[in-house]
Amino acid sequence: MPLSSKLLLIILDGLPWRNWKPFMGNLEGWVQSGEARKWRMRSVLPSTSACCYASIHTGVSPQEHGIGSNEFRRRVTQPDIFSEVAMAGGKSGAVTHSYWSEFFNRYPFDPARDIEYDEPDGPIHHGRFHTMSGYGHTNGMTPSDVDLFATLTMLTERHRIDYGILHTCTVDSMGHRYGQDCVEMDNALYTLDASLAGFLPRWREQGYEVIVTADHGQTQRGHHGGHDDEMQDVALYYFGGGSALAAEEDLLDQLQLAPTILKRLGVPAAETMKAKPFLA
């Protein structure tokens, strides 16, 4: 049975609240034109990538799902967006870091087996992953954002997925290398915004609602993980016809993402997803 709508979730890793408005001109322009709505959202703690990934998709805190750092990973046991979409008869796709495959499909990640898969039974039906193996301060090892956006577009057009997630680490990697307040980051954000503008209208024309946000923020010195507005607070942009259940000035909780996405897809949220959706 087809779902009631289609949605893509775009995660721009490590982009703090303060840097969206000054540098993401296309996203801000769509807000001004009325094509998108914008909120501020606060991540879970710790505000570390793996912890946030698991919470974004399960709607539960790291203290509940047990992913407390990037170093200690396993298959998450709680229901998540992929599992609920699959049970409802929908098709999902992921173009993300390999951690997402480990958390929501199988652990450990075997690059030869898992770098790309199409599995009719899911829970991730069409997976395209990258590992960033060898990543460090002197070697970013990040895939091109354009390549990632193009891969997601391929999944929407070739496989007609109902729900898709894309995750890029460009900003997070640049921040760890240079910090957030520098010419290098200015140019990286401009390029990312311009790249996104080449694909987002195409997704909308295909009938997808789109959410663009980040997993966590980052300090000017390129750090995150702790209890601090710079590390936790990010922007969230929504393109779609859903009715807002949160005022523009409300601070969203990251745990609201999973139940909100499922609500927009017409899929019941799991009992473990207790946060209130911010869209009807």
Sequence-ordered SSE layout with sheet pairings:
Layout: E1 6-12, H1 20-23, H2 25-33, E2 37-42, H3 49-58, H4 62-65, H5 81-87, E3 92-97, H6 98-104, H7 111-114, E4 116-118, E5 126-130, H8 145-158, E6 163-168, H9 170-178, H10 183-197, H11 200-205, E7 208-213, H12 229-232, E8 233-239, E9 251-253, H13 257-265
Helix pairs in contact: 9-10
Report on the architecture of this protein:
With 280 residues, this protein is an alpha/beta fold. It has one domain: Alkaline Phosphatase, subunit A (3-Layer(aba) Sandwich). It has 13 helices and 9 strands. Strands 4-5-3-6-1-7-8-2-9 form a 9-stranded mixed beta sheet, with helices on both faces. A hairpin with a 7-residue loop joins strand 4 and strand 5. Helix 9 runs antiparallel to helix 10. The model has no long low-confidence stretch (mean pLDDT 97).
* Helix content estimate: 25-40%
CATH superfamily: Alkaline Phosphatase, subunit A
How confident overall, as mean pLDDT? 97
The CATH architecture term is 3-Layer(aba) Sandwich
Strand content: 15-25%
Largest sheet: 9 strands, mixed
Q: How are the strands of the biggest sheet laid out side by side? A: 4-5-3-6-1-7-8-2-9
Helical stretch count? 13
Distance between the termini: 21 Å
Summing up helix and strand content along with how strands pair, one would put the structural category as alpha/beta
| CATH class membership | Alpha Beta
The gyration radius over C-alpha positions equals: 17 Å
